[in-house]
UniProtKB/TrEMBL annotation:
Keywords: Cell membrane, Lipopolysaccharide biosynthesis, Membrane, Transferase, Transmembrane, Transmembrane helix. Belongs to the glycosyltransferase group 1 family. Pathway: Bacterial outer membrane biogenesis; LPS core biosynthesis. The keyword Ribosomal protein does not apply. This is 3-deoxy-D-manno-octulosonic acid transferase. Involved in lipopolysaccharide (LPS) biosynthesis. Catalyzes the transfer of 3-deoxy-D-manno-octulosonate (Kdo) residue(s) from CMP-Kdo to lipid IV(A), the tetraacyldisaccharide-1,4'-bisphosphate precursor of lipid A. Pfam families: Glycos_transf_N. It catalyses: lipid IVA (E. coli) + CMP-3-deoxy-beta-D-manno-octulosonate = alpha-Kdo-(2->6)-lipid IVA (E. coli) + CMP + H(+).
Length: 425
């Protein structure tokens, strides 16, 4: 381990220097450095105002998606140990911007650059009793410093796909060192557990499931939707197309021709900025598809035969509660978005072919609760079958709902393990 640490700390300053040079021409890298400028000043202030406290649990999530796995864990810990202090770090600006004011967290900051100096300073200021890394994004110096300080290290929501880069010869050696730092590793499936054990010679690996299943169930149980919209869509077959990009809309809009009056369509674009909404409006107009904007209000003038474009953020998970069928965007781009959010409502889930990085999407297809769409004509045929055959729609939806309910319980298991590790120190 010592030789690895020396090698790692020779490489990190070189990489950091190269990144600063590249930042001259890379807006993303410039942002990465800029948002971390006053990071330690904020940490210093938080230490001064922290006062007396219970255990400090530090959660690290690469971005917003990984934080969704952390949310039920944080909520459960706050319920079990109300005076525990929750620190959350993000790698990406998107995750930080979305959750910087998360009410159950005592402090939300960016993860520092992984230099040895930064790691020692961060751990000294935060003084974590446990570090919980969600899914991936491992920074050796911070993990090693936390371990030396006496903190428990826990990896939760872990997955390891066959042929992953972690299993490549040289990379595997690096990650064997990193994974050996963790006291407990909680995987999503038994297959993940076996791969971690076989690839890295680990013990203490436990199958817990995906905390996101608990999270989407919690959101379902607390979901509320506009009364006017709920009334307008009552007794209608409703298609909610969520987190759509232009590539999704290029497939979706042609498939909607000829459906006027038969279904209510709600489109929730992934980006709701003015420019994107105006683009979508133009494309709807070009196809002679009638539409309304959510921001204009749902009143007596709203026709459920029109397409409703939701130009407001933060509503998607609740909108699935009034859906009969869901289309999840991203599958004609880099990767499909969250398929568990609609599945929890026991409705059929449709998405494009790019879902390799979302295991649950593939497993939903295998379970019979989801369908992969390859073209506009394919989507049109799938919709025709689901809309005009309620029994098929119900059977497919029931399979999607069971997929989620059969995977509940990860939160309780992981939180119990975190508290056991904290109490044992």
């Amino acid at each position: 381990m010592k030789a690895f640490a020396v090698f790692y700390n020779i490489c990190i300053p070189v990489i950091a220097a190269a990144a600063r040079i590249a930042a001259v021409v890379s807006p993303r890298l410039r942002t990465w450095f800029r948002v971390r400028t006053a990071l330690f000043d904020e940490l210093e202030r938080s230490v001064v105002t922290a006062g007396s406290r219970g255990p400090t649990i530090w959660f690290h999530a690469a971005s917003a998606g990984e934080f969704e796995q952390a949310r039920p864990l944080i909520g459960s810990l706050k319920t079990s140990v109300p005076d525990c202090r929750i620190v959350v770090t993000f790698q990406s600006p998107s995750g930080y911007d979305l959750r910087r004011n998360y009410p159950d967290a005592d402090l939300v900051v960016y993860h520092p650059a992984d230099t040895l100096r930064n790691a020692r300073r961060f751990v000294r200021l935060v003084q974590p009793d446990a570090v919980v890394v969600m899914r991936y994004d491992f920074w050796f110096n911070h993990l090693a410093c936390a371990e030396r300080s006496g903190a428990a290290l826990i990896l939760a929501g872990a997955v390891l796909r066959n042929g992953s880069i972690y299993q490549k010869p040289v990379v595997q050696t690096v990650y064997r060192r990193i994974f050996s730092l963790f006291d407990r590793i909680y995987t999503v499936s038994d297959t993940d557990k076996e791969r971690f054990e076989e690839s890295f010679g680990l013990s203490g690996v436990v199958t817990a499931g995906d905390p996101r299943c608990d999270q989407v169930m919690q959101r379902k149980n607390s979901a509320s939707i506009s009364g006017n919209l709920k009334t307008a869509c009552a007794n209608r077959t409703v298609l909610v197309a969520g987190s759509t990009w232009k590539a999704d809309e290029d497939i979706l809009l042609p498939a909607l021709n000829g459906w006027r009056g038969e279904i209510t369509v709600i489109i929730v674009p992934h980006e709701t900025d003015t420019g994107n909404i105006r683009r979508l409006e133009r494309e709807l107009q070009e196809r002679n598809l009638s539409y309304s904007l959510f921001s204009q209000g749902i009143d007596d003038a709203f026709s459920p035969g029109n397409i409703l474009v939701v130009d407001t953020r933060g509503m998607l998970a609740e909108l699935y509660s009034i859906a009969s069928i869901a289309y999840v965007g991203g599958g004609f781009g880099i990767n499909v978005h969250n398929t568990l959010e609609p599945a929890v409502y026991a409705i059929p889930v449709l998405f494009g072919p790019n879902h390799q990085n979302s295991r649950e999407a593939g497993e939903l297809i295998e379970a019979g609760g989801a369908m992969e769409i390859t073209s506009s004509n394919d989507l049109r045929q799938r919709l025709r079958s689901l809309v005009r055959d309620p029994s098929e729609r119900r059977r497919t939806g029931d399979r999607a709902g069971r997929f989620v309910t059969e995977r509940l319980g990860a939160t309780a298991m992981i939180c119990s393990g975190i508290l056991e590790e904290v109490d044992s120190r």
